Amino acid sequence: xxxxxxxxxxxAVVVLYCVFTFASFALYPAAYSPVTNWLSDLGNSSYNPKxxxxxxxxxxxxxxxxFPFFIGLYEWYTVNKRFRLxxxxxxxEGCVAAFSLIMIGVxxxxxxxxHTLWSAVFFIxxxxxxxxxxxxLFTHPRYIRKIAYYGFIVAAIDVLFIFFDAPWLExxxxxxxxxxxxxxxxxxxxx
Length: 191
Hints:
Layout: H1 5-27, H2 52-71, H3 81-106, H4 113-137, H5 145-164, H6 167-190
Helix pairs in contact: 1-2, 1-6, 2-3, 3-4, 4-5, 5-6
């Protein structure tokens, strides 16, 4: 039996982002710390001339992989039309968030305000998706509720990042959100 496409997309999201981010990190020419450096510093060609392309390409490919992941949430549809409509709304918002991640890679930190705009859009939309999907699926009989609790914690971390805007919080937000994608992919496989 083949694993669901959404499971494969979720695994691709986690693997692509990590591989390209850490490849870029390895090529960063100066001292780099998640405590003092933004993730996007990895994609800045002035700071990271050899590695910037990897980080930016990783954002683009991860964003592309997020589309089938969010579309794959259709596997959770029930006969309840209200539930299905709610999930469609969160799928659409997730796809817009995926597009904004692609734009973060296209408009790297070198692009100034365009990069800042797309980054803000991404983190705000992901907050909505985390809360919306977790709340909606919480009542689904095959959804692992501990994953919803984890998603709510990730959403709280995202809120902290939005308000306190610290590099280490960005790292924590992004990698805990990747953990959520991985857990959702696992739940889709077990479903």
